[in-house]
Every structure is written in C-alpha cells, then in structure tokens.
User: Which sequence fits this backbone?
C-alpha cells in the first residue's frame, strides 16, 4: 500500500502542515484506518478511493487524526488533490465525496490548488469562563463555528499576542468540541497577510495544528466583515507556519495554497 507524506499550504518542504495520503481501491474497516493514522501520527491522514464515473463525485475521501475521524480537513484535502494531480491519477478539477458533502479541488497552472468548502456559520457567544486562563490571553470576542468544524474562534488583542501564546492544552479542551482558533489582525498587511491565527485541537489529539484549512472557512467571513474585503490571506503562525488565501463567496469559501510531497513509500503492515 503506497503512502505519501505531503506538506500542505506551503511551497517548501518541512513547513506548512504535513498529511499522510493513501489512495486505495476501497476503504478497509475503520479500525485499520485509525491504526494507520496513529502510525503516521500527523494531524490528519487522508484516505481516498475512486468512485464510479457519472456520479456527483470522483473520489471518496475520509480524514483521521491519530485519535479520531474528523468531518472536515482542509490541508489533507489539499494534500490529496496534490497527489492526484502530480501522479496523474486524476486530471483537472476533482470532486471529493466527504462527510461534509462534495468538496471541490481545482489545480492552477502555477501549481496552486483551490479548495471549494462550505463557509462556517459564525454565532457570537459569551466568552466562556476559563478560556482566558487556558489560553494565557484575554479574548476580545468569541464565536461558535457551527457543526462542520465545531471550534470556538476568539479574537485576541494583536498579532504579537497570538504568536506568543503558550496555552494549557488540557484546560482548552473543556471549551469547545474540537478546539480553539485564536486570531488577530495582522500588524503590517504589507508583509503579505491580512490576519494571523493559531489553532489548538486537544480534543482530537492535536495540541497545535500547523496550518488548518477548515479553520479558514470561519476566519474568512470573520475577517472579511472586519477588514472590508472578500479576498484575504491568513498566516497561521505555528512553528511550521503557512499561508492560506481565502475568498468569501457567500455560503462557500475558496481556500488556495500549495503543497509539496516530501516522502513517497510503502506501508508494509
């Protein structure tokens, strides 16, 4: 069984968010998929198999963290589309059948890939007691992101505060179903990004996710409203870091980035 490790939302190896990608003939039992994801031990491992021609989607796609299956994952979708495109397994736009509906990935001539994802519905909520202590910073606002990504978005005072976070990951787990997205306006937009974020998902076994495509389906509408533009770029300021270009189109959000294959091998077990 062939397995590839792909760094997503970056144009260079050892940055962005690494994902395992396995192209299969069919999905095996869930327990085996979970064991493989635990062995890969990246934020997500993607499993895909081709679907019969003539349907609403071209490939079935599932994502597993080391601890659980998730309903949506941007970087592993980007990584899978990159593998399909660079290996010739699929040409042009690819439609994925997922737990979040049909997700579309379109490669461009410049090597980037654009994902078409549902926009996360944001609902303002009271800042939960204990979030400030768990994060180590006082949030300005808090928003629930709805059923697809199941996170809490909190805006912090500034970019420096987001970059400097050293949260109590165990304590954060009590405040949302998946995790916390901490964000702030960019200090200097001339540096190539409009907002920053960091994402902490202890409830699915990921203390900090390096670059989170799904989180940007919530960050895009959040910052589009505040900054007055539908096309923005987010820097996820994790130690690996990565850039996500977002374009808000009402109920859909386009996420554009690049990917690099860093390992190509065989799963022997």
Assistant:
């Amino acid at each position: 069984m062939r397995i590839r490790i792909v760094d997503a939302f970056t144009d260079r190896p050892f940055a962005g968010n690494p994902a395992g990608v396995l192209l299969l003939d069919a999905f095996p039992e869930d327990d085996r998929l979970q064991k493989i994801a635990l062995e890969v031990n990246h934020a997500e491992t993607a499993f895909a198999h081709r679907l019969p021609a003539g349907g609403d989607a071209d490939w079935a796609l599932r994502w597993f963290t080391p601890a659980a299956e998730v309903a949506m994952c941007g970087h592993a979708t980007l990584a899978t589309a990159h593998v399909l495109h660079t290996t010739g397994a699929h040409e042009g736009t690819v439609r994925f059948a997922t737990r979040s509906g049909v997700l579309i990935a379109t490669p461009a001539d410049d090597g980037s890939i654009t994902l078409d994802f549902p926009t996360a519905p944001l609902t303002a909520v009271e800042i939960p007691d204990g979030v400030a202590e768990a994060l180590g910073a006082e949030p300005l606002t808090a928003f629930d992101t709805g059923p697809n990504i199941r996170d809490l978005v909190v805006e912090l005072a500034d970019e420096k505060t987001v970059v400097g976070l050293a949260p109590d990951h165990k304590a954060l787990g009590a405040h949302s179903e998946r995790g916390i997205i901490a964000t702030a306006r960019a200090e200097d937009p001339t540096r190539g990004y409009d907002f920053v974020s960091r994402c902490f998902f202890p409830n699915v076994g990921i203390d900090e996710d390096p670059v989170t495509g799904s989180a940007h389906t919530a960050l895009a509408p959040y910052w589009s409203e505040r900054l007055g533009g539908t096309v923005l770029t987010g820097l996820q300021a994790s130690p690996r870091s990565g850039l996500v270009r977002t374009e808000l189109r009402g109920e859909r959000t386009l996420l554009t980035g690049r990917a690099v294959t860093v390992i190509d091998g065989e799963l022997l077990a």
Summary: Helices lie at 30-40, 74-87, 131-135, 159-163, 169-172, 216-227.
